[in-house]
Amino acid sequence: MGSQRAKPDRWDLGRALVAAFGVLGAAQARAQAPTPVQAPVNAGAPASAPTTLAAAQAGGSAATAGGDVTQATSAAPAPAMAPSAPLAQDAGATPAAQTPAAQAPAAQAPAEQTPAEQTPAEGASGTPGAPSAAPQGTPAGAQSTDQPGAQNAAPQPGAPPPSAASALPLPAYRPGYRSVSEATLWCDALEIAAPEFVRRFDLATTRDGRATPALEIAAPGPLPPAERSTLLVIGALDGRSLVGAEAALAVARELAANARELRPDLCVIVAPFANVEALDVCRRDGRSEGRTLRPVDDDRDGALDEDGPDDVDDDGLILEMLVESPHGTWAFAEDPRWVVPAQPGAGRRFLRVREGRDDDGDGLYNEDGPGGVDLDRNFPVGRVGPWLDTSVGALPLSEPVARALAELTRTRRVFATLLLQGAHGGVATPGGIPAIESWSAADRSLYEHLGARFSQLTARELGPPSALRVARGVDAPGAALDWFAVSCGALALELAPWGAGVERAPASPTTPARFELRDPPGDERWRAQAEREWARWLDEQRDGMGYVAWRPVDLRDGRAVWVGGFEPWTVETPPATSVERALAGLPEFVRELCDGAPRLEFASTALTRSAGVVRVRATLRNLGALPTSLRASAASSLVEPLRVELVLGPEQRLLAGPAAVRLDPLAPGELSRELEWLVLAPAPATLALRARGGWCAALEREVRE
Amino acid sequence: MSARLGDWAKRGAGFVACWAAALLFASPPARAQDGRRLTAPADVRVQLDLQHFYLPRDLQVTLSALDTAYPEFLRLESLGRSASGSELWVMTIARKEGLELARRPGVLIVAGLGLEDLAATELALHTIAELVQNHARDESVQALLERAVVYVVPCANPDLRERVLGAIERGEPAVAQAEESVLLDRNFPQRWDPLALERCGPFPLSRPESRALAEFVLGRPNLAVVQRYSASQARSGVDLGWPAADVRVLRRVASEGLLESVETAAAREGSLLSFAYEQAGAFAFAVPALARTSGEGLLPGVDEILPLARNASAASLRLMAALPRLELLAEAPSALDPATWQVELELRNLGRLPSASELAVQRYSAGAPTLEARGAELVGAALLRASDGAALVTSLRGGVATLPQVGGGETLRLRAFLTAAPGAQVTLSVRAPRAGEASVQTRLP
User: Fold this and answer.
1) What is the pLDDT of residue B370?
2) Whole-number percent of chain A with pLDDT over 70
3) How confident is the model at residue B260 (pLDDT cuts 50, 70, 90)?
4) From the candidates A631, A636, A639, A640, which should be mutated to test the interface with B, based on the most B CB atoms within 10 A?
5) What is the pLDDT of residue A87?
6) Which of A409, A376, A410 is nearest to A393 (CA)?
7) In degrees rounded to 5, what are phi and psi of residue A110?
8) In A132-275, which residue ranges form alpha helices assigned H by DSSP?
9) B2-321, what's its fold?
């Protein structure tokens, strides 16, 4: 686990941060909307072509790429511009009627107060007795520094609260995009505002020395954090889902604001920007490959990162590129704005790659771009060898963050891990590879229950959760989700804040984000179908803007290619104006998961004496809304089996019954079988029962005669 | 037995220290002379006592004594520390003069990884001694030390050894101390499977010992062979999907050397040998020296150690003799024009192992052999096909030609095209990361 940072002068730093966030907030509000890169011109298809992607797909590949060169468009909403032709007209609604609806909440939401403007009560989100309950107008820092030894103290969450409230308002969370540095500052401010509940630490340090911020949030209580049931929230480990990182910040804010209401046997660790290197690229470019920045020789030609993407048509965007090849698996649809999986016998076939030249002259395009390891493929379960894919890393957990997450789970009782990432808009369950998908089927009903709650709280129309490989449309060997489930025995879920159906207009017949897949994962058809869903979203919510139709480009090396595809700030990373909708309901879901963590209680204990022999009876109940552990469990699981031990005094002797009884996992509310022991004990007898294991914090009950 | 072990453990440390001190200041060791090597005495500068088992602290003393006594051959380093903080020692054995060690073919011997080879530490010590003591009287050992490098990790799991031997020394039951929650030889990444394996750890390389070993293996591209002294874990009838050429080599070398190849010895999930072969592409073997001991319990009897060690060292030396060894021969150059020359070459691999395993080639873990020229510019190279003599062009980049791997006992016929002034002295060299180097000199007419 990461080290505690030095805190030279926390209160002065706190005031500076709060002042800075007043400025930063305003600056962010200006900067968060992606800059328009090119004005839209026209999105019309050739008159002879079908105007819907569905129709085009049904027609298969027939048309050649037309010379009807369309445009790159701005990701930002532009109400003054004329609506473009629908990208997917079969959605059945006119863009003009739908466009403003989903954007309205973001646009009309009242501007949030800066932290400096907040009253203490607002800062605490109404939590009575929260750290911001100091008298208004009194400088909180002055109060604290008056106390001897308070300046450099590093309070541990879970420790008794200081006698005087720290009283800095919690920093507000404003939906938008932050850089890693800004997010780190925000986390610092959260800790400073609520030091008795929040501890900021560095989860890991990247190879180039950048810290990965993390927060530990817990209510005061006697149990040390390491012995509490722990929820691990990881933002954007995949390095692509910038909105997942923001979702983790929003979750941290919600939990910190109501930390006093957290159960005292619970601890939450949030690593909001888990992949700092890739996320900074994502914030800069609107998308990323999700890989760390350590150079890797992907094509094994002895040169590092020498053939990456380029803007070959000088339009300011790096999109996708079609290169004609007999080995290609894509072909133009009848509507040449789109490509579809090539059918057998298709005339012109194309390879689909990122936009760029063959910089190293080896006949391949962009096969050795910047970056190294994909953190979400660096975990050991089902991992492929580095000889097949260099992005998995030379060894499992070779990357500092992946290793730190793994080490963290060894020191904590992790009951659930939430990975906030992905662009499927729903809940994905363990199953990056078929074997793990089968393994996790034992807990299907639990996943379905949680999926339904996620759907309700986020107001999304979602089907039942699907395995990771189905949600992503492709196998995901080495995924963190599978490792957390299989090897840690944790309830592991991938929650995707963003997806094609997240901003669905109420009256839209658009298929939900978890649309039905008729083809096995990995097939190009899946991708084409997903693109259709994204096209509908653009049509309904963004006037069809955000997609550049394929157009021919001369690479000046004797080859002509086609360039097009979804613009940045659309598919994997939504525009800043959509972040609020993407995050809606997520903090509430996490909060509900915390409240529902399994909790043990001795439902009954009885002690009856017959002469010198005492008969002890007990039953155990799970008071949580989650089971005490998964049904599926691995041999090397870090989760101990549930067991009850009888703790005897020095003059007591166990006559019958096992000293420790192992129990099956308890479902929510389930009562265990009655446990019974015979003990030789002089009167009056006092002994103890201890329950531990599963995802639960340990419990001890004294039993007296 | 426990009392005997304890006594011997105490005696051993003092014994080694005395010998080391005495021999360090004694007259130079008898050097073998020409023609009389078989009767020449061994170069014994440290006397090992293989009548007891070494506690980790005694082992450290002994290794340091060896390192001090044979500075021209040995280098003792630490790979890292075990979970409880003990050093993980690796002894590098090679004659330090000559070719840089990292460019010689390497053999890694790992002992004492788990309970199954707890006694292998003494066998590894004996192997170190065999190599350094016999360099002057055994030509094969001398040649090996000059052209190869041997790395020996005598005790990869010092914590387990300390617990077990400590318990024996204290007269306590050792079996209870032998339990490990994570078995080192199931903690390597290759086919690590928590659903199928027990005690494989929460994640691969979760133990510092396995991590240090894995990093050592991956950090040495010259490693051609990894070897353990472990009891047989034979599996049969398992199709591992390995290249047929490698399987043939593994079986042949194993049968010739009375070894077990990785295919049968330890091709199981999460093992060191599987990792060494499947990820690093090094040929991996086990010397089943401890499979047939008469000792009861966890260790063989102390009187069995020396005979076991002799057999084990002999098997290790047979394996080392199979290492790839390149030889380059050149015919007289012929002129194509006044400044362009053609030289016919023969590249032989005199070892029984190929210059790299087929799997290493497939998985990019071993580089290809290369041909370079000094004193002339290499402007082209061709491989002459054995069947019909057709010249196949090899790739050339920056004056370096890339060659195919050379199988054990195979000969490649090559043709090099050079540009140089008449009368120039030209040196042609072949380098293979796991097979060392070979050079030949020729003078242009």
Assistant:
1) 96
2) 73
3) confident
4) A636
5) 55
6) A376
7) -65, 145
8) 140-145, 180-193, 242-257
9) Aminopeptidase (3.40.630)
Report ipTM (2 d.p.).
Answer: 0.79
Give every residue of chain A whose pLDDT is below 50, as ranges: 1-85, 89-155, 160-165, 511-521
Portion 84-123 of A in contact with B at CB < 8 A: none
| Tens-digit pLDDT profile for residues A308-355 | 999 999 999 999 999 999 999 999 988 888 898 888 887 899 999 999
Indicate the pairing of strand B436-443 with strand B425-432.
antiparallel
Q: How many other CB atoms are found less than 10 A from the CB of residue B24?
A: 12
Contact flag A635-B192 (C-beta cutoff 8 Å): no
pLDDT digits (tens, 9 = 90+) for A226-284: 889 999 999 999 999 999 999 999 999 999 999 999 999 999 999 999 999 999 999 99
Lowest-confidence segment of A275-279, A672-676, B122-126, B177-181 by average pLDDT: B177-181
Beta carbon pairs, A and B, within 8 Å: 66
Please determine, looking at this structure, whether the domain spanning A10-31+122-148+175-285+392-498+574-595 carries the CATH number 3.40.228.10: no
Beta bridge partners of A476: none
Give, in words, the CATH class of A600-704: mainly beta
DSSP A468-503: HHHHHTS--TT-HHHHHHHTT--EEEEE-S-BTTTT
| DSSP state, residue A236 | -
- Indicate the domain borders of chain A: 10-31+122-148+175-285+392-498+574-595, 600-704
Residues in B closer than 8 angstroms to A417, CB to CB, are: none
Q: What's at B2, amino acid-wise?
A: S
Instruction: Region of A57 please: left (phi>0), alpha (psi -120 to 50) or beta.
Output: alpha
Q: How far is CA A355 from CA A314, A393, B5, in A?
A: 11, 25, 70
In chain B, which residues have their Cβ closer than 8 Å to the Cβ of A383?
189
SS3 A69: coil
DSSP B378-408: EEEEEEEPTTT--EEEPPEETTEEE-----T
**Cα→Cα distances B270→A386, B191, B202, B229, Å:** 16, 6, 12, 17
Residue A162 is predicted with a pLDDT of: 45
Instruction: Select the residue from B184, B195, B365, B402 to test the A interface by mutation, using most A Cβ atoms within 10 A.
Output: B195
Query: In this complex, which of B182, B205, B365 lies closest to A396 when CB atoms are compared?
Result: B205
At B137, is the pLDDT very low, low, confident or very high (cuts 50, 70, 90)?
A: confident
Is residue A416 within 8 Å of residue A429, measured between CB atoms?
Answer: no
* Stretch(es) of chain B classified as CATH 2.60.40.10: 326-443
Cβ <8 Å between A397 and B192: no
Tell if the CB–CB gap between B202 and A638 is shorter than 8 Å. yes
Give me the DSSP letters along B165-228: HHHHHHT--SGGGG--SS-GGG-SSTT--TTT-SS--SSTT-SHHHHHHHHHHHT-TTEEEEEE
Chain B residue numbers with beta carbons less than 8 Å from the beta carbon of A439 are: 195
Single-letter code of the amino acid located at B417: F
Q: Tell me if A635 and B202 make a contact (CB, 8 A cut-off).
A: no
CATH architecture of B326-443: Sandwich (2.60)
Instruction: Name which of B202, B214, B362 is nearest A395 (Cβ-Cβ).
Output: B214
Min Cα–Cα distance to chain B from A359, Å: 17
Residue B432, both tokens: 């293979």
Under the banding of pLDDT at 50, 70 and 90, the label for residue B194 is confident
- The position carrying tokens 């204990």 is A605
CA distances from B190 to B212, B268, B279 (A): 15, 9, 7
Chain B residues within 8 A of A381 when measuring between CB atoms: 194
Instruction: Please name the member of B202, B215, B218 whose beta carbon is closest to the beta carbon of A636.
Output: B202
